[in-house]
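note to self: dont lose this again. the chain is below, predicted strucutre after it. 149 aa total, dont forget to put it in the shared folder this time
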Amino acid sequence: MSIIRLTKEFKFEMAHALKGYDGPCRNIHGHSYELYVTVIGKPIVDQDFPKLGMLMDFGDLKKMVRQSIIEEFDHALVLNSASADEFLPLTAEIFGKTILVDYQPTSENLLIDFAGRLLPLMPPQVKLHNLRLRETVTSFAEWHASDNE
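---
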């Protein structure tokens, strides 16, 4: 049986600011993110299983990613908790949905966070293969399981 990779694409809007950054991204600004989640494994061969022939139902993958990542981060302002004193007096009133994380909210660190959320949710026959987070039309970061074993 062949190994198959499935990819599901997600889009969400998110704002962030990079504490101590030496450029304009130190200011609060937003992006239209695109997250690509790729899983890998062998399709189900159990003739009595309703998902016969599938590695994973796209709907199940969609639900998993939406519940663990998209619902939390979509239309949120994400800040490094170390910059809370600098931004928080304003953010609660203006931005409403504010998330404080214990890391610099770069694309790279967001991917590490997202992988950590998804890895324990994978069904036994499925492995998280890679994540790609597109921050702008010309820029993206990637996380690959094989690089992190």
